[in-house]
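REQUEST ID: PR-0412
SUBMITTED BY: lab tech R.K.
PRIORITY: routine
TASK: structure prediction, single protein chain
INPUT:
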Amino acid sequence: MANPLESKHIAPLYRAITLLDRLVEKGCASFGYNNGVQIYSESFAMPLVDSRADELIALLGGADELEWAKSLVLDKSQAPRQGKESCVLDVLALLAWRLKGWRKGPFTLASPSCSLHIDSEWQSYMKWDLLAPFVQIGGAKVADVGCNNGFYMFAMYAGRKAESPQMPQSLQKIVGFDPSGLFYCQFAWLNHLLDLPIGYELLGVQDLPAYVQRVGEKFDVIFCLGVLYHRSDVFATLKSIAQSLETGGVAFIDTLIFDINDVASTLDSSIAGLPLALSVRGSYAKMSNVYLLPNLSALEGWCERCGFESVEMLAIVPTTTREQRKTRWIDSLSLENFLDPNDSSKTIEGYPAPKRAYIKVRRK
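STATUS: complete
OUTPUT:
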């Protein structure tokens, strides 16, 4: 199996990340959570006084690109830093720009005199704030499947205050799983600054059972957010999660759902109550890797057949352009481009617009 970190486009970025210790000390920053992850260090404002970072800057495009990257960094007056003496945060900003697209976030890096805001496509704090009151991870072994750049794992470690706050030091273990080399590099860039004991495996959900067999322990809590509808075999996916949980372990799952009332408001109740799923033909909201959108009854049935009990519905939430939208930190289109321009209640293909169910399930 090819190493995603050795691919043509990722290898230079990964090499740049391995050189970060020439720029700034590992674990130099503190952090917190408030509508995103805020990372703070006085080191960010330090000027580039020697040549230690020259190889890193050259990998990222050289001095001209570094000068351009200063347009991303704001000084205390909220003005771009272009024309000013180069500092550590300017180099970090250039690397962050090379690591586009930033799907999950946002992240803010700040010092007393300058700051960088990575305005991700997804305002991921909205999802985490919805889930946090239901999350109990004290002393738990936790997995985040499809973890992207690790936003939710950083949020857990920030000790997000909720109805049942969990202190970071009480976590026994957190491991993220995602096969994307780009997302791993984003995570590695962030965690160089924080140096948190978070694991990251370049594996997909299908690899979970083999992983737990290899390490000899299962998880107490698994997050599987925004993954299920991308899997052509939802039963195999749910079984992989169940098999990787301790007996009585909990999984938090969010997935796109199909509400038949969105297309037929006067349907016979005996039909509306059946477990049904929308089989996507071609693409859904311009995503060709979306296969099945269940209604709530079907979703509950899937979970029960795959080894779960106690299916608890936490929320049903439409996806809006407040939560997902185009920013300069992604190069692709976003939700506003995926909806019918004349009717935002429908996707561009004519399906009902995205709606998500958040559930908490327990392994039998």
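NOTES: Residues 160-167 have pLDDT under 50 and may be disordered.
REVIEWED BY: pending
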